Amino acid sequence: MDVLWLGVLALLLIGYFALEGFDIGLGVLLPVLGRTQEDRDRIVAAMAPFVLANEVWLVAAAGVLAGAFPSLEERVTAEGYPAVVALLLSWILRDAGLWFRRRLDGRAWRAGWDRVICAASLGLALSWGMVSAALAGLPGSPIGLSGLVCGALLAALFAFHGRTFVSWRLPGRVTGAHRGTRALLVSACAAAAPAAVAVAASAPWLLRHAAPAETLSVLSLIILPFTPVMVGAQVWVWRTFGPRRGADRVPSFF
Amino acid sequence: MDVLDLARVQFAVTGSLHFLFVVLTLGLAPLVAIMHTRHTLTGDPVHERATRFWGQIYVINYALGILTGLVMEFQFGLNWSGLARYAGDVFGAPLAIETLVAFFLESTFLGLWIFGWRRLPRPLHLACIWLVTLTAYLSAFWVMAANAFLQNPAGAVERGGRLVLTDFGALVTNPTLTMALPHVIGAGLWAGGFTVMGASAYHLFRGTAERALFTGSLRLGVTTAFIGSLITVGFGYAQFGPISQLQPGKFGSPPAGIGLGLMIAIGQPLQLALMFLMMPALYWLPRWRWAQPLLMLMVPLPFLAALLGWLARETGRQPWLVYGRLTVAEALSPGLSPAAVAVSLTGFAGVLGLLAVVDYLLIARTVRQGPGAVTLGADDLALTGPDERAPALSH
């Protein structure tokens, strides 16, 4: 049972990096790929229908931590307190930027929130680097050189993934490049690789610190029947908003 | 203030903000779903405009509900790791179920609903908003189940210094859950109903276009608030029985007692006004111009009452975090420095407070501009204004 829940945690974290990775990457690249306001609008519109379905993977992973691995939740937050606070602040500011940028007409309003999205996306990548450095026990973590190096590496991976995504969804429109589904899968694997390594490295520790069997049975009994619905909802998002369905035609809410 | 006070203030601020937005989410979701159903069944454009207008207000409000909720979820780990160490094997279960079964689906379906206008087949698009509503209520159930466990740790026994889950049935039939959940849901319907009522009264008072839309909305808002008020007040008084047995003296402390008293002082007269004044006048209310400023002024009252009720429930639990088992002081993460908590408190309270103000201003602006300016579900030609269309022409 504990192996099963370790698998669920791994899947959710890998899924988060593979999916939310391109949102963070496009946020970081927003001023680079989007020189004009119209270009930035197009980039945000390209990722907008996916953001809500992507970021919930981390919320779900945090839920699994709380339910099945409460000791790891304690370790992450104890060793990486400032990094987790930075992560949360970046996350809420990035999301606020997306929700708010089109709610007023003025150009200064939208351009201002676009700057917030870019800075907060960079903050997300850097704080993930700091959290990873703290968990790996690197010297000088969480706030220090090792964390910054990890963060910069993650930012570069996410940027590569974001660039591939936008060239897949709006081929030739933003980057001038055309990318197929296979290229997107490759960049998703690259973005998710750090999460896979981290879970694999901490698997023995996690298995020793899982919640007791009573709790895991209850979680399995209630949550596992819903997995087809959860998978189905995610597949539905990708089928609805894929590049063949006139990705650029409907005005975006974000 | 010491570390404990700072951590408590941090939880109180984020929790209160979260509750203010969530209570409206719970109230508006079914109303938007009902309007969307009418639109799908009749094809009447008035219902489409209503769905998109109230839907945009719902969605702007939802944004802050998520953002405050994220901070809440992670705060358990940051500041209160003693709770996970002592009761995590029990308390974590409803939270895990909430995130996976309810919130994961709610957010995914909401994305499909927001961005699915003019893309998804109509019946499937309608199904999305009903799934959003269903999962929002499931979410409320599991969060309240986790909170009820803190009020009355049912279904668990202590083994080796930790609580172990022994009876899942007792966890989900906890009397502090079964009485409080309808109370909270009723309060949500009340707040949602009053918001719809107040915004409709504003447009009718100003004599803007869309008279038919807002006449219908005002009546729907008052009716929803009336139903919500009956549920809230009924289950509110019904809670006193189990509470006096499980948490004797809960409302004895000044903050809890004053919170409870003020909540009743707001809620009880308002419920009577709904039952004996507003419901009988339902037919005429949209035409009585003199009454409309009053209806607008009433909007904040259910929110204020809900906040006071929440504060009474939580401060009445003090000094316990898990009632009778673990105190708040014992649950504080070990080794926290006052500086770390002060910095995170300033960050969270500052950022979330600012975003909450911006969010309410954006909701007020959406209300003021009316259905004509809504961007949710706008089609190709009706983008967001000339500002947006001019560059397209120059290509």
Can you tell me about this structure?
The complex is a heterodimer of chains A (254) and B (395). Chain A has 254 residues and is mainly α. In chain A, 79% of the residues lie in helices and 0% in strands. The longest helix of chain A has 32 residues. The model of chain A has no long low-confidence stretch (mean pLDDT 91). Chain B has 15 helices and four strands. Chain B is globular, with a radius of gyration of 22 Å. The termini of chain B are far apart. In chain B, strand 1 and strand 2 form a beta hairpin. The C terminus of chain B is likely disordered. With 395 residues, chain B is mainly α. Classes of the chains: A mainly alpha (254), B mainly alpha (395). At the A-B interface, helix 2, helix 3, helix 4, helix 8 and helix 9 of A face helix 2, helix 3 and helix 14 of B.
Compute the number of helices of chain B. Answer: 15
Helix content of chain A: over 70%
Strand numbers in spatial order across the main sheet of chain B: 1-2
Shape of chain B: globular
Largest β-sheet summary of chain A: none
Distance between the termini of chain A: 41 Å
Q: Largest interface, by Cβ-Cβ below 8 angstroms: which chains and how many residues each? A: A-B, 67 and 75 residues
Basic shape of chain A = globular
Helices and strands of chain A, in N-to-C order?
HHHHHHHHH
Beta-strand portion of chain A reads: under 5%
Structural class of chain B: mainly alpha
Radius of gyration of chain A: 19 Å
Low-pLDDT runs of 5+ residues of chain A are none
Largest sheet of chain B: 2 strands, antiparallel
* H and E string of chain B: HHHHEEHHHHHHHHEEHHH
Compute the number of helices of chain A: 9
Task: Determine the mean pLDDT of chain B.
Answer: 93
Strand segment count of chain B = 4
Binned, the helix content of chain B reads: over 70%
CA gyration radius of chain B, whole angstroms: 22 Å
DSSP summary, beta strand count of chain A: 0
